[in-house]
Amino acid sequence: MRVYFSAPPEYRTRPNWERRLDTVRQSLPDGAELLTYETALAHADYATEWPRLAEDIDGLIVTGMRPRSSKVRTVQLGPIARRELISVVPSGKPVLLHTMEHGLVPLLDCKPHRMGREPYQRLRLTVPKTWSPNAPTLQAALDALRPVRAVPHLDQPFRPSGVGQRAAG
Predict the structure, then answer these.
(1) Angle at CA 112, nearest 5°, toward 110 and 118?
(2) What is the pLDDT of residues 13-65, one digit of tens each?
(3) Which of 64, 94, 115, 150 could disulfide-link 77, Cβ–Cβ 3.0 to 4.6 Å?
(4) Is the per-residue pLDDT at 142 higher than 90?
(5) Beta-carbon contacts of residue 13 (< 8 Å; ≥ 6 apart)
(6) Is 27 exposed, middle or buried (0-12, 13-18, 19+ CB in 10 A)?
(7) Which residue did the predictor score with more confidence, 120 or 95?
(8) Is 88 exposed, middle or buried (0-12, 13-18, 19+ CB in 10 A)?
(9) Cis peptide before 119 (omega within 30 of 0)
(10) Contact at 8 Å (CB) between 105 and 97?
(11) Where are the alpha helices (DSSP H) in 14-89?
(12) Mean pLDDT of the chain
């Protein structure tokens, strides 16, 4: 399973960026691959490659800047992250918000608020005060990102006993 982590460019140059990536990786199910701009898009034309990547990934994690009021539960996404989110949501793939205080929070649980005008419209996401990491929506999103393991006895199509076999005699 491949999950893309969308973060503002300023975040990706901070000294604690690798630590944050490790935190996100530890939050994902075993076997999930975390992609970033540097690992998936840095050497490509973003405008042509993002739509292809959006189809190929199994989930999206977004993070953004704190508004000036520095509310702990509120994160603001810029125009690019907002467009990435809009391109993935209709597919039904899991989309999560990551904050250092709350960890992964399903987008479904966040309160959105659009700000500004196109093409520079931003999206402010607020984590509800009542949200808990034990929320069933988080578990469902993580389950959707869990790699499917082959079950040996299910590798062959199901056939009831005696069907398709010749009768003896």
Answers:
(1) 150
(2) 999 999 999 999 999 999 999 999 999 998 888 989 999 999 999 999 999 98
(3) 64
(4) yes
(5) none
(6) middle
(7) 95
(8) buried
(9) yes
(10) yes
(11) 17-27, 37-40, 46-56, 79-88
(12) 86
63-87 pLDDT, tens digit per residue, is: 998 877 667 889 999 999 999 999 9
**106-116 pLDDT per residue, tens:** 999 999 999 98
Contact 52, 40 (CB under 8 A): no
Residue 76 is encoded by which pair of tokens? 């603001």
Q: Which tokens sit at 164? A: 């398709």
Q: What are phi and psi of 158, to 5 degrees?
A: -70, 135
φ/ψ of 105, rounded to 5, equals -130, 125
* Alpha-carbon distance values, 55 to 28, 65, 90 (Å): 20, 26, 11
